[in-house]
Request: fold
Amino acid sequence: MSVRQIIVLAVALLAAIGALVMVRGLGNRTQKAEPTVAVTGPRVLVASKDVAPGVALQPSDLEWRMWTPTALSPSFIEESEDAKALETYTGAVARQALVAGEPIIEGRVVKPGDQGFMAAIVAPGFRAVSVPISEETAASGFILPNDRVDVILTRKVNVLDISGGSTEEVRSGIVLTNVRVLAIDKTYKTETSATAPEPIEGSVALLELSPRDSELLAMADEMGDLSLALRPVMPVSGKDRAGSSQRNSTMALEQNARAARDQIRVHSFGSAKDQTVVSQGAN
Reply:
């Protein structure tokens, strides 16, 4: 091998070694992670996930997060000033949609006991309507907030026969079905525990109804006695949607309140004739 060939091979070898060193150097440079700048500052109460309007905040919806001091606002809730804020705001209802990481501020949520809290938990388009109850008419006190119930109307009617006499009868039927219970008296939620919930002895149930069903309930309350029937926990079918009014063969609730009068067919001595039923309110 000549001296010239040896020199060419040596130069090529040096070039290859230099290229290898450069490639390895670039690889190490890209593998080095950029140093993360730790956020230092006070811890602020924020939403840990997206929360829709009208939803009650759960402990998993809230968390403390470090916040840059220059980005602080006086409306933010700082852990150093209110260490129990996470517990305080558990159960609060979002007035507006909350985005994950958004600081919790007073104007965007309403806490239990605050003015407007009950209005915040009523679903859009519905109303909160109260109805008197007792142990006998509310499943022995086992109807609790957020349960679903059917509303039953029981009334006395005088059935007039063709001879001019009358007979007092009791008619009963479901007026509204699958109605959400908002509260019993002033109890609007039940404490979660491993044991069965204690019954609530109350005199008033607050129900969530559409405007039309609110009118029907008020009319039914004037016509007779109302009872609440507890529904099982199960999916709701399309024909059994919340608050849908019911009719059956034993009772028809009038659409206007001018008079509580029905027409029924009386069978007597082999003939049938429509007779007037005069409804009587609760005694």
In short: Confidence is low (pLDDT under 50) at residues 247-252, 255-283. Residues 47 and 62 are 5 Å apart (CA to CA). The domain at 43-116 is CATH 3.90.1210.10 (Type Iii Antifreeze Protein Isoform Hplc 12).
